[in-house]
Specification:
Helix content: 25-40%
Structural class: alpha/beta
Shape: globular
Mean pLDDT: 92
Order of helices and strands: EHEHEHEEEEEHEHEEHHE
Strand order of the largest sheet: 1-2-3
Radius of gyration: 20 Å
Distance between the termini: 41 Å
Number of strands: 12
Amino acid sequence: MSNHANPMCNLYRGRFAPSPTGPLHFGSLVSALASYLDAKKQHGTWIIRIEDVDGTRCKPLFSQQITDTLLSYHLFPDEDIRIQSRHTNAYEQQLSVLKAQKAVFPCNCTRQSLAQYHGNHPLVCDSSIDQPHSWRLKTSLATYQYQDSIQGLLNFDGDLKNNCPVLKRKDGYFSYQLAVVVDDHLQNITHLVRGADLIDTTAQQLHLYHLLGWTPPSICHIPLITNDSGDKISKQNHAKPIKNNHLATLLRALHYLKIDITPSSIEDALLLAIEAWDPSKLNGIKHLSLEEQDQHFL
């Protein structure tokens, strides 16, 4: 099975969708810039969405901090910011569609019972909706292929065979996998520019698009910024918050996108960066190690 991008490239709509589990860090700034520059280079619309569907980890304080930081770097969205937690009815509606297709099943399993599978859930279990339960997507023999404009041809041959991902948790919160597909569809997103760490989620998302009868956006994955151990610069790895309105930080982030310029202000930097943006310079690169002079971003 092969999925292709939405051909309506003249109606480019891109987005940056951070999860507010902490302030914006350097790696996320690089991702935000890549999505913004790609949209603006193609005279498209750029949107910010706060992906706070996980109410146990996401905090309104961090949502505000992230938004303030993005605005301080003149990364202004073209539409009102969408707050994911305000749209759970939309996710419930699409989960109902999947239930009607018998593409999902209830699950009473615990972390302990799945430990032998290293957190995966390889089979449809015999569970009851009369007990606390999650809803999981059934495994599939479908195979997907995708042409990533940065990473090249991606083949997802066995990604759907051995794991049934959670779409709605026992505590009632929806998963990223379902919410991101529904939101991108409802917001008419045509292009995704995101980090290479999300390649592993692509097959499940393409499968959900197929089940729901929707056309997926064009997707490309920029290199991850990693530390000396090869780990992604992330909140989980205790990445430090970046300064607001700091030209030097912006220029360092652009450097990792193969853009080296000498502007006098953040506003000038973005104008020059839009002109200089060329994703082909990143072709085939899945990660870039944080350079020695940038260790303070960790």
